[in-house]
Amino acid sequence: MGLGGVMMTGFDLRTLDLPVKTYFDCIPCFVRQTLDAARMVSDDTVLHERLMREILVATADMDLRRPPPLMAQHIHRRIRELSGNDDPYREIKRRFNRTAWDLLPALKSRIDAAADPLPMAVRAAIAGNIIDLGAKTNLEEAHVREAMERCLDAPLVGDVDQFAAALRHVDTVLYLADNAGEIVFDRLLIEQLLPRRVTVAVKGGPIINDALMADALEARLDEMAELVDNGSDAPGTILDDCSAEFRRQFDEAPMVIAKGQANYETLSNAPAPIFFLLQVKCPMIAADIGQPVGALVLKRSEG
Amino acid sequence: MGLGGVMMTGFDLRTLDLPVKTYFDCIPCFVRQTLDAARMVSDDTVLHERLMREILVATADMDLRRPPPLMAQHIHRRIRELSGNDDPYREIKRRFNRTAWDLLPALKSRIDAAADPLPMAVRAAIAGNIIDLGAKTNLEEAHVREAMERCLDAPLVGDVDQFAAALRHVDTVLYLADNAGEIVFDRLLIEQLLPRRVTVAVKGGPIINDALMADALEARLDEMAELVDNGSDAPGTILDDCSAEFRRQFDEAPMVIAKGQANYETLSNAPAPIFFLLQVKCPMIAADIGQPVGALVLKRSEG
Fold first, then answer.
1. Are B118 and B76 in contact (CB under 8 A)?
2. pLDDT band, residue A187 (cuts 50/70/90)
3. Residue of A nearest to B55 (CA)
4. CA closest to A61 among chain B residues
5. Which one of A16-30, A218-232, B152-166 scores highest in mean pLDDT?
6. Residue A49 pLDDT > 90, yes or no?
7. Helix or strand holding residue A244 (H, E)
8. Residue among A16, A31, A59 whose CB faces B45 most closely
9. Average per-residue pLDDT in chain B?
């Protein structure tokens, strides 16, 4: 299967006795995302068909106790292998980084002028999470522009006061970045975290349009934070797929800020005090969080 | 695989050298329809999971040269087997037949009063095709009411004049019914076909909410037509799955009226002069026909 110990060898009803991490509803969505991604990276219909058939077999055998980003990791590894392109989203990541830099000054002026800039910066950082080509392949830059222009006036739901309170008690923060483009908007929130010591973690290898070290450098986050990669090419943060060094940093962090729905899917049971900053992108997470699709959510982990 | 000679034993690129009947885009739709249908007929999540895993394996191995209704036939056979319910849609079919009878008199008055009743009756017969629980599981009766009330004023696109002209040259018509409920509205069009000899064909066994002989009798079509069943439990008309007697009737029919998208998917290459009366229900058929989703279409076969 190519997923190592993760796939099961057959149909196993035991999955139903355990907390289900991947909903049945995620499965048609995996299949659709596979086709969308295959078409995005290649015009070759032979590749599309081969990938679709492989991913159908993989989903048929999937362990539903594991979170959805694990399947996305598998899908995109196969897309890279079959297409011979080690980072099919490279150009689009560059483009969204540039778009974000264009939009940054106007956002920064409004945040700097606000009486309470922290929640404004949180809004901008969450709104930037719209730049997610996993959930929505055909994202238009005009759509990003419009969303960012509206976001500072959008409702922000969740544990906003707890977030501000938690920040008062720490002098270091581990910041788990999500997508390219979005990572430029993360500057606005990281500025509010200073002079605390901030470590920004990006992915260890290409996965959809998630930010890599090159994107963190294009966002010039090295000016304000320590940069690390997590050693993994999965969306979100699958801790047992991350490097030992990253896991140590994660375990020792007094406070974690985790961007995006995939981090929520992979870390929501983690013991650390994590603040998830995300846009709700699907009906299953909407039901889980109790907020509609599209909502800007700041949610503290239960742990 | 349970699909006899239809499924292939492995991945086969030869499918790509032939006209593709099932689009790649149909596959995520099969998976979603499987989950929707499983939930509609049972609350048992063990059944949902087992069915999903089976259908993922079946789609992974599917012959894309065959039309989508073949996979729907397989999905719903397995739903009936796993649930032990030989017709999970029985009650809902009764209910939609009653709804249609309630709406019939108002439609009939308007059609009878029209200067040219034939296209009005065609509109009503096509609009009734909204009652399709394959494409849309959670169809509300209020939605049907509203659609039927609007339909006589809705645009009707396609080969309307050719349809009227063709009728002038035949004295018998084979009418392929589609869904329960809808089949009551078919009375309005069949009345316009009289005094020609009309044969109405229903499905030979339960498949989603497609009309069976019981539904034709609830629609009291025996008052105005000969009734036959096609011997098949597939959506649409997969001729090699139909009875020899039905195939003979089909081959000898000087004119065929075929209701619904599944008949278009299964018969669009047939040599007979077929007039397809359908609502466009998905983007793939919309692209094929050149009309938007929701359009009321009367289309003559190419043959």
1. no
2. very high
3. A60
4. B53
5. A218-232
6. yes
7. helix A244-252
8. A16
9. 90
* The one-letter amino acid at B113: A
Residues of B with CB below 8 A from A45's CB? 16, 24
Taking the Cβ of residue B36 and every Cβ of chain A, the question of whether any pair is shorter than 8 Å is answered with: no
Structure tokens at B213: 């002989």
pLDDT at position B174 over 50: yes
Structure tokens at A85: 């392109």
**Would the CB atoms of A60 and B53 count as touching at under 8 Å?**
yes
CB atoms B56 and A59 under 8 Å: yes
First to last CA, chain B: 33
Complex prediction ipTM = 0.81
What single-letter amino acid sits at B258? A
Residue B85 and residue B72: Cα distance in Å, rounded? 17
Q: What is the CA radius of gyration of chain A?
A: 19
CB neighbour list of residue B180: distance below 8 Å, 6 or more residues apart: B89, B92, B93, B94, B96, B97, B131, B209, B210, B211, B212, B215, B218
Domains (ranges, CATH) in chain B? 4-83 (no CATH), 91-300 (3.40.50.10880)
Query: What is residue A188's predicted lDDT score, i.e. its pLDDT?
Result: 97
At residue A120's C-alpha, the angle toward residues A149 and A218, to 5°, is: 70
Work out whether strand A226-229 and strand A197-202 pair parallel, antiparallel, or are unpaired: parallel
Partner-chain contact B49 A25, CB within 8 Å: no
Region class of A140: left (phi > 0), else alpha (psi between -120 and 50), else beta: beta
**Summary mean pLDDT of chain A:** 90
Q: Report how far residue B102's alpha carbon sits from residue A41's, in angstroms, rounded to the nearest whole number.
A: 52
Return the residue of B nearest to A13 by Cα.
Answer: B46
- Nearest CA to B138 among B47, B15, B39? B39
Q: Which chain A residues touch B42 with a CB distance below 8 Å?
A: none
Structure tokens at A186: 């993360």
CB contact under 8 A, B27 and A60: no
What CA–CA distance (Å, rounded) separates B168 from B196? 10
B120 and B111 in contact (C-beta within 8 Å)? Answer: yes
CA atoms within 13 A on the CB side of A153: 4
Q: Which residue of A has its CA nearest to B62?
A: A53
Radius of gyration of chain B (CA): 19
pTM: 0.84
Specify burial of residue A64 (Cβ count, 10 A radius: 0-12, 13-18, 19+).
Answer: buried
Q: Tell me: pLDDT of B197 over 90.
A: yes
Residue B53 distance to chain A (closest CA, Å): 4
